[in-house]
Amino acid sequence: MRVDGPLVIALDGSLHSAQTVHWGLTEAVLRDAPVLLTRVYREPRELLEWSWYPLLGEDLGLDTEVQQYLAEQLERARARFPALTIDVRVLSGPEVPELRRLSEDAQLLVIGARGHAGRRRVGSVSGHLAAQGRCPVAVVRGPDDESRLHAAPVVVGVDGSQSSLTAAHTAAREASLRAVPLVVVHARPTIANPNGRGMPALPPLAAGRVDENDPTHRAAQDMAAVLRAMYPTLDVRLELLDDDPVHALVAASRDAQLVVVGSRGLGAFRGMLLGAVSNEVVRDAESTVLVLHDAGPRSP
Question: According to its UniProt record, which protein family does this protein belong to (predicted)?
């Protein structure tokens, strides 16, 4: 994962963009990172689908409108965060390919969860970028009043995969930067729910003690010990649960300010861009979700 590139905040002009900007700028302060505000525009599809000929050569002024929008966002951002280095960039074309290309040189891509998706929990652009981003992707979601989450923990799910181990180290860094607790969640699946995923077949049971016969419990303990050694001042809390992993992480997200997941866990097939657990956590979590796509930093 790059640590020298810009923090890219992708905007779409929706009602949720203000929350996306605020989260991204706050994260940039924590990272001491330069910021790039961007918006992608394309000619209205209706012009090609509902007319005999595309309106070639006619200037619709969309680029000017987007430039004005970004200029206003830039002015507000610099007024609120004068110490940050903030630039803007207008992109033209399909949103996902353009933002994916921009993410290749970024240390973090910040996007809103819904955008113009209406009632859907995750918009199509956000969902595709969470899976296809070339850098870590933060899918921003949460209450409009974020003050109550100021001291809320960072949550990370671990299953023993390399992806989840990387996520644990990144989550520890994020928690340390925020000076909040880190909750490491390992959920051991119970009986499969015959009615489908969403609720466990049985009520989730917290493991009262470590199951010494379960190597995943021992591995989770070892991971927590490593993180405590690397971040001596960090409050690392280990939760060993008998529960569906998606249900456990979504439940934990209700009292968290950030959930960190790897792109693929142990159950993912080779070639999958985003594993089933990570995909559903991005869709259903109540908090912002940070999805990792490559090795993260392993030092404070």
Answer: Belongs to the universal stress protein A family.
| Same domain, yes or no: 167 and 126 | no
d(CA 103, CA 255): 29
146 lies in a domain?
no
1 DSSP assignment:
-
Residues spanned by the domain of 81: 7-140
d(CA 75, CA 63): 18
Question: Which DSSP symbol is given to 146?
Answer: G
- Report the SS3 class of residue 143: coil
pTM, whole model, 2 decimals? 0.83
Q: Determine, yes or no, domain membership for 67.
A: yes
- Is 297 part of any domain? no
CATH code of the domain containing 282: 3.40.50.12370
Identify whether 57 is part of a domain: yes
Tally of domains within the chain = 2
Cβ neighbour number for residue 112 with a 10 Å cutoff: 30
Q: State how far the Cα of 275 lies from the Cα of 270, in Å rounded to an integer.
A: 10
Name the phi and psi angles at 11, rounded to 5.
Answer: -115, 155
- Summarize pLDDT for 37-69 with one digit per residue, the tens: 999 987 665 445 545 555 555 555 567 889 999
